[in-house]
Specification:
The protein is built from 5 helices and 10 strands, in the order αααααββββββββββ. By secondary structure, the chain is α+β, with helices and mostly antiparallel strands. It holds the Pfam family Cupin_2.
Length: 184
């Protein structure tokens, strides 16, 4: 999906979720701590969201991030090309949503995650569990005050609703991030 198409999908999903709750743009701005003008641009498909913006919207609307970023379809075969994906960036992390899986009682989002050398990403928390598998590099990750150092092939799972951190140890890190949410 091109960046322009991804922005359109995000805009359509934000508007649909906001309207389903009977919220005005002002109410969503209040709930998410995002400026009304920024939300208007996002709904129009012309904004440039950051990871923090998308997670703030996810928390405010109480939906998984993938609910905001994906079109609804159920193909038998799914091929995702990294080059076609919208990148959500922060000061340290680049995320690409590879797939959203709607399971019986859970939603699972699978991301390609890249952490830049010297980068530190702190997150206040969000619903669900985080699953992390490092594929290259060394990553310090987990709840603040109780992080783990992961190398290639290492895996950790922890509650996402507590403040947590992603930090490189040395060079760049590539990993798979899976966010597991209870189904709404």
């Amino acid at each position: 999906m091109s960046a322009a198409r991804a922005g359109e999908v995000l805009g359509v999903n934000i508007k649909a979720l906001r309207e389903a709750r009977g919220w005005s743009l002002s109410e969503l701005a209040r709930q998410s701590s995002i400026a009304k003008g920024t939300l208007s641009q996002l709904e129009a498909g012309t904004g440039n969201p950051t990871i923090e913006t998308v997670f703030s919207l996810s928390n405010a609307l109480q939906v998984p991030v993938s609910e905001l970023l994906t079109e609804r379809s159920v193909p038998e075969v799914v091929l995702v090309r990294s080059a076609d994906l919208e990148v959500l960036s922060s000061n340290a992390v680049d995320l690409r949503l590879l797939r959203r899986l709607d399971l019986t009682d859970k939603v699972l989002e699978i991301y390609d995650q890249r952490v830049r050398p010297g980068g530190v990403q702190r997150t206040d928390g969000h619903p669900g569990l985080e699953h992390v598998v490092v594929t290259a590099g060394v990553l310090r990750v987990g709840p603040v005050g109780g992080t783990f150092e992961l190398g290639p092939g290492d895996y950790v799972c922890y509650p996402g609703d507590v403040p947590h951190v992603y930090e490189t140890v040395g060079g760049p890190v590539t990993s798979v991030l899976m966010l597991e949410y209870p189904k709404a």
